[in-house]
Structures are given as structure tokens and as C-alpha cells.
Amino acid sequence: MPVAHSLSCSKTYGAPRRPFEKSWLDQELKLIGEYGLRNKREIWRVEFTLAKIRKAARELLTLDEKDAKRLFEGNVLLCVWSTLEWWMRRR
């Protein structure tokens, strides 16, 4: 009997454009050692998440200050950012 999957099919990370550049390799290796990550995909996942947050912030800044979407999503974005900041301080 088939099982229905309700998983999201959206991207969770983006690989670098130049994966074998020496400076990137050294920087990623340093981050893996510093934070105890398992692989480079975990670094890419965090970078992708931060890029999505920055993109959403840029889009909100283009809207009018009194716009309802900017007010609501701006508060949500600040909550997400403060949660991420809390997690970073905890490490």
C-alpha cells in the first residue's frame, strides 16, 4: 500500500558556484572544525537560510512604511532573526 508523503520539495541549500576555489575550501574547513559540523552541506544550508532572510528584508524595505504587509512580515522577520541570534549566542 503506497504511503503519501507530505514533505516539502523546496530547496534547502545551494552549492557554491566555484566549489574548488582554494579560499572557499579553507574557509569551509575552518567553519567545520570550529562548529563541529558533519559536512559542507550544513554550512551551505545555513548560508542559504540567511540569504533567504536577507532577500525578504530587502523586498520589505522597498514597500511603503505604512504598508500592512511590511508591518506584519517585518515583525515576523525580526522574530526569526532574534531566534537565530539566540541560537548563535548559545553555541
TrEMBL record:
InterPro entries: Ribosomal_uS4, Ribosomal_uS4_N. It comes from the Eukaryota. GO terms for molecular function: rRNA binding; structural constituent of ribosome. GO terms for biological process: ribosomal small subunit biogenesis. The keyword RNA-binding applies. This is Small ribosomal subunit protein uS4 N-terminal domain-containing protein. The keyword Ribosomal protein does not apply. Pfam families: Ribosomal_S4 (PF00163). Residues 11-85 form the Small ribosomal subunit protein uS4 N-terminal domain. Belongs to the universal ribosomal protein uS4 family. Keywords: Ribonucleoprotein, RNA-binding. The lineage of its organism: Eukaryota, Metazoa, Chordata, Craniata, Vertebrata. GO terms for cellular component: cytosolic small ribosomal subunit.
